[in-house]
Amino acid sequence: MNYFSNKQPLLNDIFSRYPGSPQGKRSALMPLLREVQDAEGYVTEDRLHEIAALCGTTATEVRSVMSFYSTYHTTPTGKYHLQVCATLMCALAGAEELWDELVSELDVQPGEVSSDGRFSVQKVECLGSCGTAPVIQLGDEGFYENVTPKRCRHLLAALRADQKPAPDNTIPVMVNSAGLQVTYSGQAAGAPVEFLRRLTDTDLPAPPPAGSEVKK
Amino acid sequence: MKVTVDGTEVDLPSGTSAIDAVFAAGGDVPYFCAHPYLSPVGACRMCLVESGSPRKGQDGHFELDETGQPKIFYFPKPMAACTMLATEGMHIKTAKTSPVVAKSQAGMMEFHLINHPLDCPTCDKGGACELQDRAFEYGYGASRFGFDRRHADKHYPLSDFIILDQERCIHCKRCVRYFEEVPGQEVLDFIERGGHTFIDTQEGGLPTGFQGNIADVCPVGALLDNVARFRGRNWEYDHTPTTCTLCPVGCAITVDARNGRLERIVGRENREVNEQWICDAGRFGHVFAREGRLTSPLIRDGGQLRGASWDEAIQAMKNGLYGTSPADIALFINSDSTLEEGAAVQALAGQLGTGHVDHWPRYPVAVSSTATLTDVASADAVVVLGADLGEEAPVVELRILEALRGGIIPNEFTHGTAIADLRLVERPARKPERLAVIGQPSRLWKHAGIRADVGGHNPLLKLANPDSDELRAALTLLGRAEKPVLILGADVLNQASGSFAASLSDMAQRTGAKFLAIAAGANSSGLAALKLVPQPGQLNFSQLPQARAAFISRLDPRVRAAGFTIVHDTHLTETAKLADVVLPAVTNYEKRGTTVNLEGRFLALQQAALSAGDSADLIRTLTILAEALGVRPQVRGLKSAQGVLETALGFSVQGLPERGEIRPLAGAAGNGATTGQVYKPQLWKEHMLDKGWHTTWAERTESLGAGEWELPMAAQPRHAPGGDD
Asked: Thinking of the domain B2-112, which architecture would CATH place it in?
């Protein structure tokens, strides 16, 4: 069963954001991956080939792009997907010890889900929160900062009881359901797609001032 | 454009990259990712140099330093020379004069070696490894990084023929760029990121055709030729630069032999023929040359073939041919035989008075091409008529694809082909509208903008009298183009009748197109010029069963002559099993001589150090046949053959330049000599696939011979012209 076979309007919407040329069609790769990832929680090999066919590229290239970003998964994740930043700043601040603590406490390895279905873990590259290293990101929701092994144990205990503590900080920028980049409070970040035009167009509308409200 | 490298001023054409400026000035810069025929990307960061240019002040004049010379404003940090354009007045400092560069290159080398396993003692690349050499020349010799190295799969088969060692990979991206840019198959890519990056494919394997070239471009031992894996160290091989004779392209190859066994074939550069690339058949199809060889003559004794000495063989031939008129002996040779061997056949036939002389495979006409392969690569329109290039001349396919991505042939300097030609870009926009393919569907179809299936009709006549939109479009394409090239394949040349030459020259005149005829055999155009074809009334190769006596060299028609049959072959073929006398032959890897490729280019063959027992080449074998017949042959060796050739061709074939030389040939000699059979081109010849001789590789080689492994994306050909980036 193809994921996109009965979603023609969605496909039209995604492809309408990019030029119709072969190279332009490839740009739809990331939104299509995002769509599958959000809907199914992970991207299977069948979906790789499906997306490759839609973008007119090879599954190799789709996998190459997908594997670069830690936000896409090839295997199902637990209810709480914990991502430990392992890049330089966090590493210096003790991310390795944090990782060891996490893995031994939960008894899971990357790619696995704990037996209660709650937890999965992953090492990721810089999360952009170096000032508060070491950092754990929970799903797509937010950062837990300055996580010592002790804080880590508290966090896990709370999650085991399904009492998720509020994250210390939200993820700076995310993509909403309309495919637009927004901050946690819903403010537009970056250039919204609807204002993108070819450079030759003369009727270029003035972009809205940064930080203005965007319809969701 | 004047550029100063380490204080030496050189004059260079504009558009030269900084790395080529350094090499042109006689300097040296280490590099891994740059490759003459691939786009420069600056991935390895080894070619760092300090560079700067003079700057004009507000008054419009160059700012001067204390000595009154234009002041050089250096970039604040070292720059990658392979992606930097050299400009007028630029100053470049390499490690020779700049301690900053020496230190940054040594530092980069240290980074390259962070995760490299340093298993050189067991690595096939050892001794011929760019990383090894450059680490020795430019590295510190020690590393400050003490932590664990990355561990990954060390024996990862990308296909049956290419093994990837993911630990050794230094992420230069040459193989990824090769597949994207040269055969146009996006099958390899980086997976993961940072230090975890590795090369992989999601397509279930590598496409057959040109996959072996990635083993050549790999600067380290990550991608290895599986056929030659663990068969020898680089310094143990006898390297013989020679010419491949599987198809009429005549690619430059190096044959590596060890202890008299052929172990490996690698591509060699010939800018004008194959650039740097060879096909999989040429690279991997050599196992037959070391397996199951005949090493001594066989004679029929009591109905059975038995091993014998050459003296016994001569006696057997003497007895067998007793009473046969020498004029009745048919001489049939394979058309990949060298010109020298052809001259020997011609001379002996003259002495015997026989006209039953033929070479196979050949077409009824021998067409002298007017286009060169460089013309093909730089054409603005290519029309392929009735050719399955994958079977006939694979490298022509690559040259056509080169034309489709802009026909940019890297510049040449005194140090060789430009190491980084900045006109080559990653993900080049292709122009499928420049290619029309007329004839049966083939691998090239997915790259063509215009495709016409004409069934069994003659594609040339169809093009001359178009009856469909595609054919008319192809004719318009030819007419509008400035440098059009027609490529004629088997379906045209097999059907060539009396009016063929007229209709071809008519088409060439109408459209101004040059044409490239793909000859049937590796040297059939050369042998046709020697008039090694039967005259009317004489037997051609298909009439072998009627011959009263026959000498057959390296051909396997699976029938014998009516009378005494002598087979000269490298293996005990089906024909040899029927013969009265079997004489051991040498392969084309073991010959010295000259061959003429499809452009009419004379290329030299060299003899690789292979041991093949008592085997003899065609010239020596013919002298032995002459001895059995009691004739003193005119041609007794290579030198006298070359003398005969010089008389026949009007020039000497000795001392050919390394790239070969295009010489006019009296090609019309073969015209009108009927073949009596249709030649169906086959790249993987029967003897290369025979399981009886090489069991280890036969089944895997079959998968290559079967050819068509389609990419998933091939189902959706890209019709939209060009690209937007």
From this structure: Roll (3.10)
A58:B713 CB<8 A: yes
Structural domain A80-170, CATH architecture: 3-Layer(aba) Sandwich (3.40)
Query: Could you tell me if B194 lies within 8 Å of chain A, comparing CB atoms?
Result: yes
Chain A's closest residue to B202, CA to CA, is A60
Segments of chain B assigned to CATH 3.40.228.10: 373-518
B716 and A CB contact within 8 Å: yes
Tokens, residue B375: 């013309």
Cβ-proximal residues to A199 (8 Å cutoff; 6+ apart), any chain: none
Cβ contacts below 8 Å, chain A against chain B, sum to: 67
- A contacts of B716 (beta carbons < 8 Å): 53, 56
Structure tokens at B120: 């050189």
Q: Where in chain B is the domain with CATH 3.10.20.740?
A: 2-112
Is residue B192 less than 8 Å (CB to CB) from chain A?
A: yes
Q: pTM here?
A: 0.90
pLDDT, one tens digit per residue, over A93-129 is 999 999 999 999 999 999 899 999 999 999 999 998 8
Binding-site residues on chain A for chain B (CB distance < 8 A): 19-24, 45, 48-49, 52-53, 56-64, 67-68, 125
Locate all alpha helices (DSSP H) within chain A, ordered by sequence. 8-15, 22-26, 29-40, 45-55, 59-68, 88-92, 95-106, 149-160
For residue range B353-391, list pLDDT tens digits in order.
999 999 999 998 888 899 999 999 999 999 999 999 999
Whole-angstrom CA distances from B68 to B8, B60, B62, B72, B255 are 19, 16, 10, 12, 57
CA B269 to chain centre: 9
Contact A21 B722 (CB under 8 A): yes
Complete DSSP assignment for B559-574 = ---SSEEEEEESS--H
Provide the CATH number for the domain formed by A8-68 in this structure: 1.10.10.1590
Write the CA distances from B322 to B314, B380, B576, integer angstroms: 12, 61, 21
CB contact under 8 A, A23 and B191: no
The ipTM (two decimal places) reads 0.84
Instruction: Tell me the CATH architecture of domain B298-363+524-589+615-689.
Output: 3-Layer(aba) Sandwich (3.40)
Q: Does B711 touch chain A (CB under 8 A)?
A: yes
Residue in B192, B203, B725 closest to A58 by CB: B203
Tokens of B30: 């280490």
Which chain B residues are within 8 Å of A48, Cβ to Cβ?
202
Q: Using one digit for the tens of pLDDT, what is the confidence trace for B385-428?
A: 999 999 999 999 999 999 999 999 999 999 999 999 999 998 88
Architecture of domain B373-518: 3-Layer(aba) Sandwich (3.40)
A161 dihedral zone (left: phi>0; alpha: psi -120 to 50; beta): alpha
Asked if the C-beta of B350 comes within 8 angstroms of chain A's C-beta atoms, the answer is: no
CB-CB under 8 Å, A125 with B724: no
Q: Beta strands of B292-388 (E only): which ranges?
A: 298-301, 304-307, 329-334, 357-360, 381-385
Tokens at residue B142, please? Answer: 């020690």
* Dist. CA B275–CA B403, nearest whole Å: 13
> Does B716 sit within 8 Å of A62, measured CB to CB?
no
| Residues of chain A with C-beta less than 8 angstroms from the C-beta of B190 | 64, 68
Is A195 in contact with A205 (CB distance < 8 Å)? yes
CATH class for the domain made up of B145-289: alpha beta
Do residues A37 and A174 touch, judged by C-beta distance below 8 A?
Answer: no
| Closest Cβ opposite residue B202 in set A24, A56, A63 | A63
